[in-house]
Structure formats: C-alpha cells, structure tokens
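Backbones bend. Shown next:

***
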Amino acid sequence: MQGAVATALPVASAAARLAPRCATSLTKSSTHVGSRVPVGRSLLPRSSWRSLGSLQVRAVAAPQAPTPQAQERELSRSRFDDVGITMRALRRTSADGAISYAVEVFSDWPRPNAVLHWAANDWELPPQECWPAGSYQAGDKAVQTPLADGGSRLEFAFPEAVCPARLVFVIKEGEQWTNSGGGDFVAHLKPPGKSEVMEKVLVAESEYDHWSLFNRFIMAGQMLDAADAAGPEGMGFFFTWLRLSTMRQLDWYRNSNYQSKDIAHVQKHLAERMAFKVRTAEHPLCRLFARLTLAGLPRGGGNGDDIRMGILHVMRENGIREGHRPGIEDHFLEQWHQKLHTNTTPEDVTICEAYLAFLRSGTMDEFWRVAWERGQLTPERLASMDHPITAHPVHLPHLIGPFEHYLWILKTTHSGADLDTSFTMAQGLMDGELAWIIGDILANRNEWWVPGKIVEARHRLKHYWQNEGASRDLLLLDIALDGYFRLCVERMDKGALQGDDLINLIILVLDNASVAAESEELRQCMALWRRVQEGAGGDRWGRDWSLLAMAAADNTALCLEHYCDSIFRLTQPCAEAFGARCSSVHQEYVLNFGEEVVRSQPVFVLSVLLRFLDPMLRTSAGVGSWQVVSQGGAGTAGQLAVMPDLAGIQGQRFAEPQVIVAEKLTGNEDIPEGVMAVLTSSPTDVLSHIAIRARAQGVLLATCFDATELEGIKSQAGAYVAASVSPAGDVMVAPAAAPAAGAAGGGAARGAAAPRMQLERPAAAAGGAGGRWVLPESEFGPGLVGGKSANLAELRRKLPAGVQAPASIALPFGTFERVLAADCNASVAAAVAKAERAVADAKSSCEVPADLPFLRSMIAYKLTPPPGLSAQLGEAAAAAGLISSAAEWAEDSPCWEDAWRAICKVWASKWNDRAWLSRRAQGVPDKDLFMAVLLQQVVPAQYAFVLHTADPLTGQLGELHGELVVGMGEALVGNYPGRALSFAANGDGAPRLLSLPGKRQGLFARAGVPHLIARSDSNGEDLEAFAGAGLYDSVPFPALEHHAIDYAGEPLLFDCELRQRLLAELAELGAGVEQAFGGVPQDIEGVRTADGAWFVVQSRPQVLHSR
C-alpha cells in the first residue's frame, strides 16, 4: 500500500466538506472507540447509521453479486477549538482483510500556505512509503506535507506492518508555528497501555530538572487521548495525576519559568480538551474521570498578558515603587509581582483574596486565615516558591478597588468550577429563563428551596453542555452547581429532619446524581425510592412499608458502595505509585487519597442520610439493631479483636478464645477454631454457608446495624469480654474475667477437644464405578457419589405433586484419579504428584502453600480426557435430556470443551485456598478427600430459595425458616451482600414476613441459552461434625450473568398478594418434602421459574444443633 493521498473534496471549508457525510458541523467531536462503520460514513452520529444505511440501499441498484465492504473503526477523535483543528485516528479493514491505519486532519478554515511538519512516534523519520503526495523531508527526523483541498484537509495512511504507535505533528504557515496547547499534536494509532502512560508521567514528575505546572499541562494535553484509550484505568491514573497537582502534592515550580499568556493558553486548551472528553469518551467511568479532572483545573483563557501587565498598572497608577521607579515601598507587592511575571498559577487567586482581606481589616491574621481557608497557603508555602514571597504587605486601603478588579482578571484565567465566575462566563450561552433561575439561586443561595432548584437547573443545563462544541464554561458551571448542592445538603441539620423529609432528600440527592453520574444502578435506586415515597407496598410507616423502605435503603447503600469502590480501586493504586516515586508527595496524603476522592463525590452524602433514616425504619418495622444468625453456646467469651474480615485468619487455630469484630463477611469464610463469636456490620443470610458453619461450630454470629453501638463494642478491643443474646434478640458484650493461666475456658476447651475429622473412603475411590466414567441418576448411591447426588434419585420419587427436580448425571468417585492416571496425562500426573508432596510437607497450618495455584492450574487447564470418556459422557447427557444429542459433546467441539473445562475446575477446587486451610485445620489429610462431579440442568430461575423446615437457630421442629432472592441461588447461599427476602411459617397461619430483598446483584441464566452446572460432590460435605458446604466450587457453563437488580418493578416488593401466595406455596412445599422424608427436618434448595413452576435442586437432612 503506497502512502496516503488527501482526497479532493469540492467544498471550501472543512465543516462544509463534511456536511454531505453527516448532518453535523465539524464541531461535532464525538469519540466512538470501537465502532465499525463503512468507509465514507464514519462521521455519522451513531443513531443514524442504521437508518441512513437503509436509505442508501433503496437508492442504489443492487449489484449482481454481493461485494464485501471495507470497514473502518474510529480509534479516537480529538477537537482543538483554540486552533480550529479536528483529528481522527482510524483502523481500516479492506474487503480482502488487509489492515491499515489512518490519521485524518481537518481545518475549520482554509490554510493554503500551511504544511504539516510531522514524524512518527517521538519524532522519528517515518517510512517513505507512507508519505502523502507532495511530501518532502525536513531535517533528519521529520517530513513536511502541504494540506490538501486548499489547505483544509490531509490524510495519512499506514500499512499495518509499518504503522507507528503514534503520529506527531505541528502546523507551519510561513514563519508561524501552531501547536497543541504548547506541545505537539499527537494521534495515537496503537495507543499505549496504562503502564506506559504511567511510566512516562512518573519519570517526568520524579526526574526532570526543569518542570512546572505549565509543563505538566502541556504533557497532560498530549497524554489525554492515550489515557482515554487505556480505558477507566488510564483515565483513573490521569485524574489522580492532576488531582495530586491541584492539591499541590506535585511541584508547581521546579527551575522553570513561563509567561502568563502562555499558562493562560495552555490552561484553556487543557480545559477545553477535558470538556470534550466529558462529552465524548466511550466508557462512562472515563467520562466521570474527565469531569472530576476538569473540576480541579483552572478555566484558562482570558487575556494572560493582563495578569502580567495588570499588576504593573495597579502599582504604577497607585504610586507603588516598582524597580527603580520611585514610590511607596511594598516588598510584598514587589515579590508577588515577580512571581506573577514568571510563574502565575491558581494560587494567585488565593493570594489576591487574602491580600484583599488584609486591606479591608488591616491585620495579617485575616490574611493568613483567608489564605488557609481558600487555598491552604501558609507562610512556609509562600516562602518555598521559586519566587518566594516572604514580606508582609503594607496596609494601603485605597488599593481595594484596583485589586478587586485584578482578582477578576485572575479568576478569568485561573478559576475553574467557581460558582460565581462560571455563571458570569456562561450566562450568555443559555436561554434567559435558565439564566434567571441560576441567578436567583445565587441571589438566595442560603434559602431552604435552593437544593431543589439546583437540581432543576442542572437538568436543563445538561442539554447545553452536552451539545457538540459546547463551551467549557457551561460544564464548569454545572460542576460548580453540583458542588454547591452537596454543600447545601451537608450543612442541613439531619437530626431535625422527619423520616419523610429524609426520604425526600434521598430522592433529591439521587436525582442530582443522575445528571452526570451515569450510573444505571443509582438511577434504579431513585426509581425504587420514588415508589416507596408514593406509599406502595403497604400503609405508610406501617410494618410492611417500613420493611420495604429498609430494603430500599439496603439496596441503595450497596449500590453507593459499589459506585464508590469502583472509583477507589482505580485511583488509590495510582496515588501509591506517585507516593513511591515522587518525593514531594506526602505519604499521609497518599494513605487517604482514594477515600478522600470518594468522599468528595456529591452522591456520597447519601450514606449520611441513610444512617439517620435507618433507626426510624427499624423502629416502625419493629426490628432491632441486631440480626442473630447463630446463637452460639453457653459461656461465649474471649479476647475481643477487631479486623477488616476473616480472610487473614483462615486456617488458624487460636489457643485462647476469641471474640472477633469483622468489618465485612463474604459468606464463604471458615470460622477458625477458638473463635467463639463473630460480630459484623455485614448483613448475613441465615441460610448462607457461613451461617450454617457457625451453627455447626456453636459460634455466635450476628450482624449489628447500629454503627454507634458497634463502635462501642470495638472500643473494647484487647479486653476479655463475654457475649450473649438477650431475650429481645440483642447481643450484649460486656467485660468479663479472663480464665486463670492454664485454665481452659469454655471456648478453649471446645477448641482443644474439637474432634479431628476422619472422612470415609468411598467404595468407588479405587476404580470408579465398575470402569464407567459416568452414572445415570437411577444408579446414584452411597460410596459411588457424594451426598448431593445420592439424595437426588430418592428426592425425585418423593417430591410432592407439581414440584419438579432438574435432570442430572454424575462422574463418580475415582473418576478424577483414573483420568490423572491415563497415559495421555502422564506429564500432568507427575507434576501434580510433585506439587502434592510439596503441599503435604507445608509446615504451617495457616499459611497457603505456594504450590496450590500451580495444582489448580494444572488440573483445571492441562488435563486431557482419556479415549472414550467424551463419547460416554455425551451419550449419558443426551439420554438424561441435558443436551440435545451426544454429537453436541463430540470431542474437540466447543460445547464439549466448555463441559470438560467445568468438570476439571470442580476437581481443581479441591486445592482452593479455603478448602485446603479448612482440611488442615480439621486434621483431614488431602489424600482422604475425593471429588465426584454432579452434572445438572440449570433451571432459569426467576427466584431461588432455601428452606430449613426446622428453626435453624433454635432447632424447634415445625418452625420453617425460608429465604428467597431474585435470580439464581448462589446469591443466597454465597451470602452476596444485602438481605434476602426472609420469612417464617409454623403451619398455624399465614407466613410471617421478616425482611424484603435488597441485594444489589443477582445471577441469571442467559435468555434462550441452555445452561448446565458441574457441582462439587465430595465426601467431605454435609457432615454433621463438619459443615463443609461451599468449600468446593460449582461451575455453571456457559457462565451465569451478573446483573444489578431493578427492584422498582419487582413484584416481590410491591405485589403483597402475590408475595403472600408465593410464601404460602413455599411453606407448603417445605412441609411436603419433610413429610416425604419421614418427618426428618430438611435443608431444601430450589427455584421458581417465570411461568410459576417450582423445582427442588436438592434436599438433604437438616443438621440440627442442640442449644
């Protein structure tokens, strides 16, 4: 492919030339990374592609034979308003599959005498085959090419084999050079990843001898497209970089000077580019980080020379000595003038405000108060600047007027999201009514109605700042209004608000967030709260309505946590990278960086409102501040320890009894021996794996919903305490006398006497099931398969009428060992045996051996099915109705690969960290654990449930406890954050609702796609002496989808009649299954489909623990 020739277009201006291709002007600056459109239509708005394409097909005669169309993907689009340049980077695929890259440069006006002075990468001479027509070499590193079409357009094309990572250029017109905000224009054809962007920035910040705010902003303009192309991680780093700069954690002055007009131009250029990214970046988080970055940037623009000359005019016109010019001697103004002349920054706004406070008061106390409150400026900070300011000003009140005007000059350039400045700059860019509304807000900014008016104004303003070519001042005004809204809400007296007022305010905060946050989950929360506010779900402030509002609060808190955590995860590691490389960054600032970023989000105030609302809802619902999921035994006492979670103590055995306060629980942890109680703020499902284990071990497990009460318990850390459950269901924690040295307390005695587990060796372990790889459900039995599978055949025969069970087959005990011993897996077997020996030799019982990940990887990904296995398994699966025909699992087919990989991952889960630590803690040798695999249909669930037909806390027979979630059951048994719908029934009346669901996420089968699941079925689960449920993996294939649940339209919450009918059916189902198994209490898992069918996935005897 030879070069790139600019295509001639017949129209004079770039905007007009683009008009035939799209209905927008050149100021349209959307970035649609990853879009694929036919060549010649790439500038069309995305919403127009389909309709316009169909119009073209109707207008043009169909060809005799279909011809493949060339395609192009827009990698990025950049708009430079200050110089009238638009630039696109493209990836093209020709009809024959050849790949090439292109850069298109458009000018808003003809530049007939202009040439592009360009090169590859960091100014390297590009291959001559890629030079557009008319190009010539300029020096040893660059090429110059005249703009085509009368100086309005130029295109570069690069075959894939010789395409550079980026193209750099400036524009030369005679002796005038035009660049991109002080640096080169950069078009990234093969954008760098986050690590490359980080390294380039970190080297500059930590190693360059000459560096300043001016240089940083130039580099930021050049790196912006690369950061955006790197996705949320790249833009998270970009934001962190400039946030650290805004907070002066990075040097503003390092042996570098510049003129005020230059910094004004660079700031304006960068602010315009950021505003462009807010509108056009592809990923919502990239748009969010662009917005957060812009919020901390100076506005730029104005007349930068007015900063330099303005201070001189004030000094000269008011008789202040300047240089050799005689006058009043004021060393402060002289020193500040020198700084303004060579290093003006946003700090000058703060200095001017502090100086005006001094002129009005005559005291330096006022100067330093304002300097600190407005910009955290101290005497030490001013003295450390490249041009130090150490002198105190002279009190000259006649300078108040001139410096009020000069403050406006400074704000025009340096202020960013300052409310008054941004409104002054933007008010002429909106309709008169909106301008009046915002002006009224500013004139009455302390009135009670202002927050609501701000939200109304922001919704209207959004239509302006989202428009193509919109001024940065409109977006800066929106950011300023957003910040002032938060300030209004923060300063309200929350304790004086009634419950309805708090709910109204929650909705208003969510509505405000919906303007720019782009979070579908927060939008769903707002819709849910609006339904709650309308009184749906029961009598307002009655019990059922209050349970509904508690579910909404629970869901909102989880969605807020997820939103904030995503910001934290993308920024905190970046701040730590700067802290490790840049000596100017204070480590205490790095430590809290991500948290401070999260807390600065206006939506964060939701957490405060929910905290005030929670006790009101609990009181009206008749719910206490504690949820006890395992009551523990008598004499629950131990040393109180506070920790973030239980992950750090997995596998440990405590010699002395412990009472643990854990910030979070995931639901899959083991509770180490010697732990007598676990108290947490995480909602915990009564029927989750961790709850079942706690009851099996006699451990008190409870959730506290009162943050103040839990903090009081934490304050006893290190003390010996006793924990007990009151008759009202509250947990009482009080100091207690520690047992004498050498004496065994209740917990220590139980820990010391805890039996070492002995697993029964399955009969099939030696050679499988008579040489067969797979068993049909009719042949499931003890010794051949685990408890899950063994119960299924009996379950199907005993289920009540109308209740179904999913079809299943099983790979029996010993199958894994046979597969590993097959000749085709000899090398894998040798590697596994070596790793198993290393694991067995591990000295510590609470540290994970380094060989475990290797073992999991080898078994999950390296095992090959022996001859005949896939055929036998396919036939059995087809016979059971799991697949349509045996051919579907033919060896080497994609479907078989998915099935085989899922089976191997289940076998590999024997070696997951938690399972190994648990076996080691229980004294179970690894060789004694055998794994069968149950292959079962995944029933596409509308709801999933777990029932215990006897009370799981007290063991009371006939007291059924049930929990229900939207979607598949893993969200329930895996204790996904948030509450499930919980209810109780005793057969004497209607089921009693205990809580409504608020989990953020559910798991769902993909619509129209059959799903299967490979379930672990070991000989180490469902044992009375050991609650091993959930230790080993179950793997659905294809993978289930995680979705945020939209509760605003969920019938479980709002259709009381339907809900009661479902709960009654569940209570009847539980009683029927228990009766079918001879009255033995049952632990039942199942689902309900959208068409109302009930399925029981498994039922096993419920393990009851005496109290």
